[in-house]
Amino acid sequence: MLFSRRRPAGLLEKMRGLVWPAKGFSRPFHYYRMRILRLSASPHAVAAGIASGMMAAWTPFLGFHIVLSVVLAWIVAGDVIAAALATAFANPLTFPFIWAATWKIGTWMLGGDLAAGHHHLDLHHLLGSVGWADLWRPVIEPMLIGAIPPALVSGLFAYGLTFLLVRRYRDRRRLRLAEGARLRAGAAIHPAP
């Protein structure tokens, strides 16, 4: 096999790999960072795409985050690939925090009293009935309304940060390429004896 290991992993190494990957947890973040920085779109388009993806990730519509992010990116002239990549903000590790935050913010915005204790949700009963009308008022509506403030804040923050990082990365890359071209041109004019 082309990309197989020379020595097969033992049981202990396989078990350790389930808990802590051999390349660490930072590798996927590095991959996404480099993938975003190397997009060929303008810094505004990349930043607008990232902001669109981050904003779509706050919505409670699982399975539609990428579609929603692409539509938002198209509206604001953002890069659709960056938008799709940024929806990874919503993942199984962040879903509980996103859902809790959006539900609490939405309940507060709709005038509900969180401290009163009468907002206890029996999700098992609600999900068992699987009625859209039964889920809309107590769960989906507060989450949808509550997603607006954090989506706007994180979208603006992501836009600003991404715009600056992409511009800085491209300026530094342009300088490196110009320096390399200058060195190659100097070597061509004055060949080594």
UniProtKB/TrEMBL annotation:
InterPro entries: DUF2062 (IPR018639)
Domain of life: Bacteria
Claim: Lipid metabolism is one of the keywords in the record: no
Keyword Repeat: no
Organism: Rhizobium terricola
Protein name: DUF2062 domain-containing protein
Key words, A-Z: Membrane, Transmembrane, Transmembrane helix
Chain ranges of the DUF2062 domain: 27-174
Short name of any one Pfam family annotated for the protein: DUF2062
Residues annotated as transmembrane: 64-86, 143-166
